[in-house]
Amino acid sequence: MAALKYSRQRESIKRFLMSRYDHPTADTIYLHVREEFPNISLGTVYRNLALLTELGEIIKITTDGPDRFDGHVEPHSHFLCRKCHSLLDVHLEDESFIDQQAQKNFPGMIDGHSVLYYGICSDCAK
Amino acid sequence: MAALKYSRQRESIKRFLMSRYDHPTADTIYLHVREEFPNISLGTVYRNLALLTELGEIIKITTDGPDRFDGHVEPHSHFLCRKCHSLLDVHLEDESFIDQQAQKNFPGMIDGHSVLYYGICSDCAK
DNA sequence: CATAATAATGATAATGGTTATTGTTTCTTA
DNA sequence: TAAGAAACAATAACCATTATCATTATTATG
């Protein structure tokens, strides 16, 4: 049943995401990986992004507009600049604290969260 | 320039959202409002949802799948059940605390956030 | 090593949610 | 009550994403 096979394209996508901290879209990833694999198709990029997300090797960030991807899976949050729309990392001292606080007033079982902060990034604030 | 004009359709959309706590999609809203306005078009629903969101009278919640809408704008968070995909309200004791914590380690200016919790709702846990 | 089995690919069509366009209708105000 | 403008219904267009399918690459096996 669906034994995973190695693919150079997938490897390349993963490597690219690990090298980046700007949370590129599928299209940006496509344009980059195409330098190494000129014939790669956008469908292959999407397919592998979905697969890697399912495997927990990358994170998919859903916002307004196209999804963005993060090759760094340690728990952290994100910030979206209202001006330049860049998506930046935010590191909280204790990510699990958020879940604990919410759990106090919520009857279901909370096992995770995703936070998106909004504001003006330091570059745009200048 | 763009003086806002009253519309019964918009009124009805707003009224419906205020009466609900289940964060319906544009399509669900469309199906409901159609009972009152059988000729309303889906485009009108989208147009008014965008307008109301811009005015701050409702909140747009972007997740995987179609956007969902909330007629209650007091600060609160949301919970998405991994099983039944219902979207529920979560009320934190202090919503602004999250911003303050993040601001400690972030150089830009944070002026808001949206949190989406994940887990199993109390109904599905049974 | 050769070959069979099957997962992954590239090319492309299809989908689904959302936005834009256009001609008509409904509000507003003067 | 008539002119001007915003909102409408109908529908086409758009864009991100997913599905299809014939071919190629990777892995398992004899």
Molecular structure report:
The structure is a homodimer of 126-residue chains. Chain A is of the alpha+beta class and 126 residues long. Helices cover 39% and strands 21% of the residues of chain A. Chain A has 5 helices and 5 strands. The first copy, chain A, has helices at residues 8-18, 26-36, 42-55, 95-103, 122-125, and strands at residues 59-61, 68-70, 77-81, 87-90, 109-120. In chain A, the strands form 2 sheets. Chain A has a 3-stranded mixed sheet with strand order 4-3-5. Chain A has a two-stranded antiparallel sheet with strand order 1-2. In chain A, helix 2 (26-36) crosses helix 3. The longest helix of chain A is centred in the middle third of the chain and has 14 residues, at 42-55. The first copy, chain A, is globular. Chain A starts with 7 loop residues before the first helix and ends with a helix. Chain A binds a DNA duplex (30 and 30 nucleotides) through helix 1 and helix 3.
Taking the alpha carbons of the first and last residues of chain A, their distance comes to: 55 Å
Q: Quick one: how many beta strands of chain A?
A: 5
Largest contact between chains: A-B, 37 and 37 residues
Secondary-structure element pattern of chain A, one letter each: HHHEEEEHEH
C-alpha-based Rg of chain A, rounded: 17 Å
* Helix segment tally of chain A: 5
Structural class of chain A: alpha+beta
Percent of sequence in beta strands of chain A? 15-25%
Helix content of chain A: 25-40%
Give a short account of the largest sheet of chain A. Answer: 3 strands, mixed
Determine the oligomeric state from the structure: homodimer
Mean of pLDDT of chain A: 96
Shape of chain A: globular
Runs of chain A with pLDDT <50, length 5+? none
Strand order, main sheet of chain A: write it out. 4-3-5
